[in-house]
Amino acid sequence: MRVELSSPKNYNNRELSWLAFNERVLEEALDERNPLLERLKFLSIFSSNLDEFFMVRVAGLKDQVKAGFNRPENKAGMTPKQQLQKIGAKAHRLVEMQNSLFQDAIIPELKEEKVELLNMEQLSSAQLLRLETYFEEEIFPVLTPMAVDAYRPFPMLLNKSLNLAVSLLDEHELDESAQQKTAIVQVPAVLDRFIQLEDTKEDELHFVLLEDIISHYSYKLFRGYQIKSVTVFRITRNADMTIHEEGARDLLKEIEKELKKRKWGAAIRLEIPKQEYDYKMVTFLTETLDIHRKDVYEIDGPIDMTRMMQFYKLVAAKREHLVYETLIPQPPAEIGTDENLFDATNDRDIFLHHPYESFEPIVDFVSKAADDPDVLAIKQTLYRVSGDSPIIDALKRAAEKGKQVTVLFELKARFDEENNVQWAKELEKSGCHVIYGMTHLKTHSKITLVVRKKHTRIERFVHLGTGNYNDQTAKLYTDMGLFTSKRKFGIDATNFFNYLSGYTEKPTFHHLSVAPFDIRSDIISMIDEEIRLHKRHGNGRIIMKMNSITDKPIIQKLYEASIAGIQIDLIIRGICCLRPGIKGVSENIRVRSIVGRYLEHTRIYYFHHNGEEKIQLSSADMMTRNMEKRVEILFPIFDGPIKRRIRGILDVMLRDNSKAREQDENGVYHYVTRGDQEELVDSQLILFNEAYQVMDDEE
């Protein structure tokens, strides 16, 4: 009987799957095995994730509805309107869960640690007097009250800004039936959100919120008027950029123009306090901002939990036991303490696993290349870099020393566009040749090429990775990288950069597989080969680790492999449109998600191939956008010990019974069950301990 692999019942909706991932993030705030402040941080991460989701994905669906687009998406078969309805219900439930976590768990436990967020009614008269002085001297000069009337229209408020809506009554019109007036006060983002009270006991940490102070003393802003109500609110706007690349003579200028528009996109979400808000004012805000009541979210606690990261840092400085124990990335096991990186790479391929192993060798790779008089050229792709990037400094230094430096800086990296525009300008001023990517494609590849002339001989050193060249996120994201000087990798890297920078057809590569399209076809070919070998030998095995999987052709090919009897394990942190465990379709597929201390970011693709194991690392997830709309690289691992090490890492993750959740046939995730006698396996901690053990053994 023929199985209909395209049936919507075989797929999870992309957006709902993403919300399920963010729910797993929220569950980390519930997990009492995490230190208290780390749980608070997970609440902040959940909110930050949700902001981006609304600004891009929800905004896009709303645009489709407005445009009258009613066609179902091609996997789970839901129309934009149906998706918005399901998203709204799920998002409201998750926000309620966040509210409950904050009020019923985090706040009481902080109080036990003598850390409190107080409201103005809880303060003594002496404290109020000091705060009044603070308001008049530090806050009042920064505030700009904005009246709303026929001559002064509702102000255009910045995306994600915190504001106060003030309802006023003229003191000369004491009649309650008199028309109330409205004013908006923006809470200045330049001021500290959490104000610490100084007159407390030595072991106490008490704070008040900036918006509470402004609200309490707002009457000082409106002399001659009586304050009827003050409502804190925050709006989220459509932040998806529409870049018209075809007619753009200068992509950099086009992006700068679109960045200005992003701040003022259509409002798509309104956040208000769960208690003590003025219903009439909220009605006024929804009508003025053209927001439906179902897009109003009531927050029980400080609005904009993303700012809790500031609170985390303030408290962590005084309560170190409430945060994770510091784990220091170790020097890579495959590089000797006094070994020159270029000599080591000439001798053998070198594998790095971050954050368990340090990111420093990658910084050193570019930095030493910049200073090495024998180096002729450095070529690198950059997608997201840190705010004070040592790699950028090294590239600038190399150009100033006369080396040929070519940098592909992807200006369209979402929410890093502004940062990348500034870096691109700086690199150009230093003499680097900067290219901005390819028309209609994002360059998401992670590759660096160093060309050196040593004793009349040209050498090429290549670094390939799964993650960004960002020294800060490398401490928080799990990623892998490879240094190699193998000749064919060097040729491939040279051809890849020439393909990006010049007018040439896509080259034929020796080892690299390059999207758009080639990665998909090569992955499908490897799955087909696994099916062929399994039919002959009966030992088929596929393991894939990635951030997300949405690509229907690849999902269907995995379904075919499952039907053929191949055992498949997918380790997918985020979106998973594939649904495992469906009888006759995916019963041989298991899907797990690991959400823990570090953001799982590595992309690994393993095929057993009857014992001739194939392991590929990649910058690409198995998403349609990565397969068709991005320049990505998939690269093979040839070195036997490195292959065994990566396989061992996968095995540890597949044994995780601490932070792993498994998806059932209904698309719902559950924590992996652990037997009474079964040892606890936290894969991230095990991998860190292994890195420490290697260093101890060497010493």
Automatic annotation (TrEMBL):
Annotated binding of ATP, by residue: 49, 477, 573, 601
CDD domains: PLDc_PaPPK1_C1_like, PLDc_PaPPK1_C2_like
InterPro entries the UniProt entry points to: PP_kinase, PP_kinase_C_1, PP_kinase_middle, PP_kinase_middle_dom_sf, PPK_C_dom2, PPK_N_dom, PPK_N_dom_sf
UniProt: Mg(2+) binding residues: 384, 414
Keywords: ATP-binding, Kinase, Magnesium, Metal-binding, Nucleotide-binding, Phosphoprotein, Transferase
Post-translational modification: An intermediate of this reaction is the autophosphorylated ppk in which a phosphate is covalently linked to a histidine residue through a N-P bond.
Every Polyphosphate kinase C-terminal domain range: 341-505, 512-684
Domain Polyphosphate kinase middle residue range list: 130-311
Name this polypeptide is given: Polyphosphate kinase
UniProt organism field: Terribacillus saccharophilus
